[in-house]
Design goal:
Helices cover 3% and strands 51% of the residues. The strands form seven sheets. Strands 8, 9, 10, 11 and 12 form a five-stranded antiparallel β-sheet that branches. The protein has a four-stranded antiparallel β-sheet with strand order 4-5-6-7, with no helix packed on it.
């Protein structure tokens, strides 16, 4: 969220905490919270409310749990509850905008992009659509058709200044397909994109977007693990680094992800693969410009540090394993 608050998921509950209080005292009463129905994701609004998404639903609740708005007619015209929400809804850093990807059912004689047995009955889908919403009213500010149906999931990454976002859709032909766009009150505008790469994070103070390409088991030239950066103004690929040596044959490519600490540094988190006896993740400190590794972080003080990293924007970061949360800084 912003520099003063962060969002914490505890099982079926989302909580908003004041950052300094939580880091100093640990388990404290949240500023606001909401219990999630099954198959639900969500994000917080500046006033402590939440924008939530389910399989067929997007809605907003106030801090007291009252429903503010529900986006149904705009997503499911004529009451057809077949257009699914792909992935979770996300909210811009200032909380004014929300992004969500929906599927599009094809009816009549039109030729679908895919037929999926996710019914019954078998459904015919066209390209997914990215929606940009006003979090205060639920109004649809922008609609951007995407290349293909995501079918499995979609995810979004917001720039820290909220000026643009990247959306990655998983299709079952070519792995990830990514677009980067401007997003504001005037709607959405596509700037560029990439195939076979998942958007992971923007580098603050720049137009650079980090992506991951993983060896997903398709064979041939697709069997590579690369961390790359793009200039989202020009769509130029600025840097690329093969991280295969860091995986060293023991890691799970799908669990490899970069987390940006600041404009100069990032952490590449590498998750062990199946059958590896040592289940501890490894975190490589990398240069945010060249993407080259600077060294392996030493967590010997707390060897149980978790895989996921939560950067705090001041050069420090959190790791979580189970109920334990640790804050780290470079020596």
């Amino acid at each position: 969220m912003d520099g003063e608050r962060f969002l914490l998921r505890r099982g079926p509950r989302l909580e908003v905490h004041r950052r300094d209080t939580f880091l100093a005292l640990g388990a404290v009463r949240p500023l606001s919270r909401v219990d999630l129905p099954s198959v639900t994701g969500g994000a917080a609004t500046p006033d402590g409310g939440f924008v939530l998404s389910g399989e067929f639903r997007v809605w907003c609740v106030a801090p007291d749990g009252r429903t503010r708005w529900e986006l149904s007619d705009g997503i499911w015209p004529d009451g057809v509850r077949g257009d699914r929400v792909r992935g979770d809804v996300t909210v811009s850093p200032d909380g004014s905008l929300a992004a969500v990807v929906k599927s599009t059912l094809v009816t009549g004689p039109s030729v679908p992009a895919a037929r999926v047995d996710d019914g019954p009955p078998e459904r015919r889908y066209g390209p997914d659509v990215l929606l940009l919403l006003d979090t205060a009213t639920g109004d649809v500010l922008g609609r951007q058709p995407l290349d293909v149906p995501a079918l499995l999931t979609a995810q979004h990454v917001w720039h820290p200044d909220g000026s643009r976002l990247a959306v990655s859709c998983w299709d079952f032909w070519d792995s990830w397909i990514t677009h980067w766009l401007t997003a504001d009150g005037d709607g959405l505008r596509v700037l560029g994109g990439a195939t076979l790469e998942e958007a992971t994070a923007f580098v603050p103070g720049s137009a650079r977007l980090l992506t991951m390409r993983r060896a997903e088991g398709f064979g041939g030239s697709q069997e590579t693990n690369e961390l790359a950066s793009y200039d989202t103004d020009t769509s130029e690929r600025l840097a690329v680094h093969d991280v295969g040596d860091l995986l060293a044959g023991w890691a799970n490519p799908s669990g490899t992800r970069p987390y940006v600490l600041d404009a100069e540094r990032l952490i590449l988190s590498v998750d062990p693969g199946d059958g590896v006896e040592d289940r501890r993740s490894r975190h490589w400190l990398c240069d945010a410009n060249t993407l080259r590794p600077l060294g392996l972080l030493d967590y010997s003080e707390h060897p149980g540090a978790g895989h996921a990293v939560t950067p705090l924007g001041d050069g420090t970061w959190l790791t979580r394993r189970g109920r334990r949360v640790d804050r780290w800084a470079l020596a």
